[in-house]
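Q: What does the assembled structure look like for these inputs?
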Amino acid sequence: MAIADVQRVSEPALPNGLAQLTALTREDLQAVNKIILERMQSEVALIPQLAGHVIAAGGKRLRPMLTLSSARLCGYQGRRHMALAACVEFIHTATLLHDDVVDESHLRRGLETANSLWGNKPSVLVGDFLFSRAFQVMVQDGSLEVLKILSDASAIIAQGEVAQLITANDTETSEADYVGVISEKTAPLFEAACRIGAVVGERPSAEQEALGRYGRNFGIAFQLVDDVLDYSARQADLGKTVGDDFREGKITLPVVLAFARGSEEEQRFWRRCLEDLEQRDTDLDRALGLMDRHSALDDSLDRARAYGNDAIDSLKLFEDSPYRRAMIEVVEFCIERAY
Amino acid sequence: MAIADVQRVSEPALPNGLAQLTALTREDLQAVNKIILERMQSEVALIPQLAGHVIAAGGKRLRPMLTLSSARLCGYQGRRHMALAACVEFIHTATLLHDDVVDESHLRRGLETANSLWGNKPSVLVGDFLFSRAFQVMVQDGSLEVLKILSDASAIIAQGEVAQLITANDTETSEADYVGVISEKTAPLFEAACRIGAVVGERPSAEQEALGRYGRNFGIAFQLVDDVLDYSARQADLGKTVGDDFREGKITLPVVLAFARGSEEEQRFWRRCLEDLEQRDTDLDRALGLMDRHSALDDSLDRARAYGNDAIDSLKLFEDSPYRRAMIEVVEFCIERAY
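A:
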């Protein structure tokens, strides 16, 4: 349902759709970065060293920016949202560290992963440290409501990761299965990051729900776009390599759609490449060709767009403001970047 | 300082020093086990399966028993201590799961480890799940003081684990270094488990401090005894194998003492076995001989006894009661079992 005063994803996004949000939260985000730097310290030098590598490479700070802008959207004028945005980033970093160990990844955003540089052991333990530190910072903030939001999110994320481990390399995964996995794996931290803004803003529960729905749907859209980019020519522009998910045998929505729509012979191809991980030099090109034939990337992006629209619709509860506009634009930007 | 009304470690312990504590906390512990079973459930079947394996193999439930008995010692009559004892066990289980991944262990208490049975990946993620679940249960309990105690403990434990990773296989480790590591790695959860009892009992901070000191010193004594048992003939009685730490190149107090007191030739032996991990069939026997010559095991036990005495002294603040007697006896039992 299109709401007249809510800009739609189908309208062209600003070229700098992330710049708007970045500009609005710049000062807050500088304070967050300072808190992150202070609170990741430890007398054990390897901890800030390793954590610093991941956090510095962490790029956009999208999740903490969502906490900051959600709080400001709710009219919050204090400083609590900064420490809590740092907690969100700590939890995100902890899950990245553990993810890279579990996925045996050696590159993240073009840089060597912590497990590749220092080994799995410190990655597991520094992840545990950052996770504990996030809870220490929340305790200092003193809100049981925030503690509930982030401990619930963490439990669901861990559960989603275990579920993904089980369905990994299973080409029979349905679209519903896959959306279920990312609803648990990626969406909860986006949702929590936004909800926290409403909590510190002390807004009624309808607004907390609306921001939660915005974050949840944005998280799903974000992950679907990420999955598409892994097979897209645009990927190369972003300094990444095409086909990482394919080489790891990861089942994502483009694969789910191409497999479901493929002939028996094509399905044998997908099974050999992704289940048995028997891959030849020309297989990635063939995979891209099959995805093109079955519109797997376009249709995945359409799904992302639908979730993005739902995210944007959720903001109709709030009056027009630079923060609301920026939060709409960032969703559009995340989807448009894949075209 | 010996206090007349406090039984000393040097007096003979009851043969069933753990049985007393077990008997006193039996009903509470049954409730804790029920909570553990309920709260480790998940729609992802692998989570309760893997967690159940570790928790069932977990043996004595020493840490949750300390929460239960500390609360009762403080005169607490409610039920909060049960859920919080379950949190302590969840955090303990999460650290065991991650420890076994980090140490690449294949056996724990004579059973195959979770990482050996299911692989490292689910062990890391189910550990994360249990850790998050512990915080969810604490949030439900609603005490920021408890959340502070356990998030602080978790951060220190993770930091201690990273520190141990760095000092691992370094034969130059001093006794102070080593006690420093176990003060961060093993003692904090014992300390936290006991402090929580005083918090739910709403006792003055002096009593919380006293129980914290009891737990901390008991934890150090417990770890030192564990280290000695790994080289002791008594080990075989306990269904374990002698020399696991030696084979893994772990530096524990018996090694620290034997190395410091050894000749240059002996120090070369220790370096070859524990730093270079070049071990021959007869090396463990030689290590045991060197420990015997330099009284390394006896002196390690004396250190454990000193920490145990400090733990027992901390209880002088409390009036005599079956719970206090059981908490004294369990310290004595843990030390005596190594003789």
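The interface with chain B takes residues 42-44, 46-47, 95, 98, 101-102, 120-122, 124-126, 128-129, 131-133, 135-136, 138-139, 142, 144, 147-148, 151-152, 154-155, 157-159, 161-163, 165-166 of chain A (CB under 8 Å).
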